[in-house]
Amino acid sequence: MQFTRLRLNGFKSFVDPTDLVIQPGLTGVVGPNGCGKSNLLEALRWVMGENRPTAMRGAGMEDVIFAGTASRGARSFAEVALVLDNADRLAPAGFNDQDQIEVIRRITRDAGSAYRVNMKDARARDVQMLFADASTGAHSPALVRQGQIAELISARPKARRRILEEAAGISGLYARRHDAELR
Ligand code: ATP
Ligand code: MG
What we know:
Number of domains: 1
CATH class: Alpha Beta
Subcellular location: Cytoplasm
Oligomer: single chain
Subunit structure: Homodimer.
Bound molecules: adenosine-5'-triphosphate, magnesium ion
Binding site for ATP: 32-39
Protein name: Chromosome partition protein Smc
Shape: globular
Family: Belongs to the SMC family.
């Protein structure tokens, strides 16, 4: 599975609809301080099911909605869409019937988040499952926040083990076992 497109609308500083085409290979995002580089990575994490406002550098999840500036009013919702190329059919069962998978998360003030996968309503859990084995997802060690390296060095052994398990690709297994135990 490969990310091919990231679309943002009203997410943090990306108030106007923004459509990023992600091509194979290395992508660099450059720009001055405060231009929104970290916001882009946060959008990626958020659409994959991140539920901790602190991971979005906010106090509450609605803080991801464009808050307004002196010249523009605040928005009432934020939406991020992530398109995955699934031509090699590596997506987990239940998502694997199409060449392309589009995940959309939208948050509306006072109404919380809603997810859609290929235009069908989905739960946060479904979206997290979609990414659980792909060495990606909201908590993926492949996404390194600013300051995270310093945190890793000072982490307690248990927290460090979780990171290693993610990196080894076995956390999807745990997530599914946990899911099975709840059923
Ligand atoms: P640096 O190079 O310093 O790491 P950066 O390019 O990573 O900068 P970001 O941290 O992504 O920049 O962007 C910060 C900007 O996003 C700030 O100007 C902040 O005001 C703006 N921002 C964050 N949340 C919102 C929001 N909800 N509404 C409007 N603007 C927001
Ligand atoms: Mg940054």
